[in-house]
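Handout for the seminar on molecular recognition.
Each group receives one record of this type.
Step one: identify the two inputs.
Step two: read the structure output and locate the region that could contact PMV.
Step three: write two sentences on what you found, then compare them with the reference statements printed after the record.
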Amino acid sequence: MSNQKATAISCSNIAFIKYWGNRDEKLRLPANPSLSMNLAGLETTTTVEFVAGLEADELLIGEKAEAGAALERVSNQLDQIRSKAGITLKARVESQNNFPAGAGLASSASAFAALTVAGAAAAGLSLSEKELSVMARLGSGSASRSVPAGFVEWQVGQTSEESFAFSIAPPNHWPLMDVIAVISKQHKHVGSTAGHALAGTSQLQAARVASAPERLERCREAVLAKNFAQLAEVVEADSNLMHAVMMTSGSPLFYWEPITLAIMKSIRAWRAEGLPVCYTIDAGPNVHCLCPAEDAPEVMRRLHENLDVKEILTAGPGGAARLV
Ligand code: PMV
């Protein structure tokens, strides 16, 4: 086989119903189903080139050559692709994020979705969206949800082939906005892979997992009906439950900063006053403020003026991972 190259772009996503904890760590089979919105404009662009004669996989993130754990994780993902395509060539991978990595902005979701889509194409594989979602999941669970477009559900599944994500509504279904209060761009101390492994050590995890399908139903219904009040209530409850599990794990994980809680409380007060906005928080201190697009300017103004948030990113519903 001669050199083969492909480039893909994938959006990050924000979970409305969170994935936290695995039934199978190695296969990243989730403990519970989850539901998210792709984030338009928060993207990873990745080029994969299988190169004849290359001795080992190479990884460039931005301008920086990566080694160690980051490279190993990418190599493992390339191994999945190589074994499916029946090739042994090593690859050169170049990846670029247009947003800060490791700050709870789900860079691993867009990164592994883009890597999978580009890598499969470069290896000459022609895979369905479902197969790409399964494969992306093996790299990072939430990456399975960055493969399909818009509003996306990831079903638990009994086997690896059954654990994939699918679109429940296209990006133009509901002009929601994620107004992200960026509190810190620091790399998080405990990443999500280690976090998932700790989930089961919290006494609260079993209760969270048992009630997740019911929250997912309510969330799906709210998205399909564009019912913001119902969405707000279930999204905040689900985020609070995940953070309760994190904080009560054997080795507790506290991802919030004081400003994170201040924003959460303000958002609830603003909603009580009639401004449609709710919060959700991933494995980092940043606060994702969800609102109808028309209310985003007011949410941004209040974050800036009342809470002195200096950096704000905004993203509407994003499309599927795609080759360029
Ligand atoms: O895909 P991972 O292993 O980075 O896990 C993502 C975990 C959360 O972002 C906290 C929740 C989610 O469902 O995206």
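Reference statements: The chain has two domains: 4-172, 173-315. The mean pLDDT is 95.
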